[in-house]
Amino acid sequence: MEQQKLFELYKFTADAGQSHLRVDKFLYNKIENVSRNKIQNAAKQGYILIDGKPVKSNRKVKPGNTIIVMSNNEPHETELIPENIPIDIIYEDDVLMVINKEAGMVVHPSYGHRNGTLVNALMYHIKDCSLFDSENQRPGLVHRLDKNTTGLLVIAKTEHSLSSLSKQFFNRTTVRRYNALIWGRPKEPEGTITGNIGRSLKDRKVMDVFPKGEYGKHAVTHYKIIEEFGYVTLIECKLETGRTHQIRAHLKHIGHPLFNDSEYGGNKILKGTRFSKYKQFIDNCFKIIPRQALHAKTLSFTHPATGENVSFKSELPDDMKEIIEKWRNYVKFTF
Hints:
It is a single chain. The chain is of the alpha+beta class and about 325 residues long. The chain has 3 domains: about 60 residues, Structural Genomics Hypothetical 15.5 Kd Protein In mrcA-pckA Intergenic Region, Chain A (Roll); about 80 residues, Pseudouridine synthase; about 140 residues, 2-Layer Sandwich (Pseudouridine synthase), CATH 3.30.2350. The protein contains 7 helices and 17 strands. A hairpin with a 2-residue loop joins strand 3 and strand 4. The longest helix has 17 residues. It is globular, with a radius of gyration of 22 Å. The mean pLDDT is about 90.
C-alpha cells in the first residue's frame, strides 16, 4: 500500500522561557481559528511532531522543541496579483524603500484580505525585483504594522538587504518610536512596560500580557509623556522588542488603552465626566479618528549597502493632528 504523503502546515520553535505546556494547548494558543478538538484529532492521526517524532496531544512542549503540524492536503497559496495602489514612498534606492503606511491598509495578504494589501501594491511598484514574484507571499517584508496603525515601514528589495534588515530587527539594533494618544495619564513621566505577550486565551483575535515564563514572548516597551490633555495623554513609545500588538497590549495592561482602540477597550469613555456635553465631545473625536491613535513616527537602522546609520521621520497623519488639536482646545476651556 502506498504511504500517504504529508505536507508541513505549521512549524514553531518553543522559546527558551517556554513552560512545560501540553502540545495541544501550545498549538491552540499559536494557531488562529482552530479548535482544541481538531488539534487532538490531528495528534491521533500522527500529524503532530515534536523534534521529528509523532506525539500524543498530552505530550509536554519544552524549551527549544520544534513543533510541526502536518497535513495530507498540500497547502494552497493564492497567487499574488500586482495592483496599482498608491503608496507614500519616503525614501527609495536600489536595495530598499521606506514607506509611510496609511490607516486601513493591510500589510500582507491573509484570510479575508487577499487583495488591496501593501504587498499587492509593492508587487506593482517594484515588479522588476526578484523578491517580488507571485509565489512569494511576503516579499521584502521585515516587519509590519497593524491595519489601522499608520507610519513607517522599511521594505527590502534584495536578498542581501532582506537578510541584513531581518538580522537587525532580530538583534534589536533598530530604533522604532511611535506616538500614541492614550486614556488617562501614567503615574510616572516616563517608564518601561515589561511582560510576555501571547495570544489571548479568551479572545484569540487579540494579544494579552502574561507573567514571565508562563506563556508568550518576552516584550519590552519604553514610554515617555509628550503632552497632557486632562483625560488623555500623548506619549512616545520606543520598542525594544517587536511583538504582535505589543504597544496596544502593553498599554491596556497598565490601564491606559490607546484612544479609540476597539480591540483593546479604548473605544469607550474611560476617563472624564458624566456630562452629556463631554460624551458628545468624545463621540465627535471617535468620528474623526475611527481607529486606534497610534503612529510609527521614526525609524532608524544600518543601511545594508553603505553600513551607515540612517533615520527617517514621518509627520502625524491628519486624523491624529486634528484629534490632538481638539483636546488642546478642550483643555484650554475646561481645566
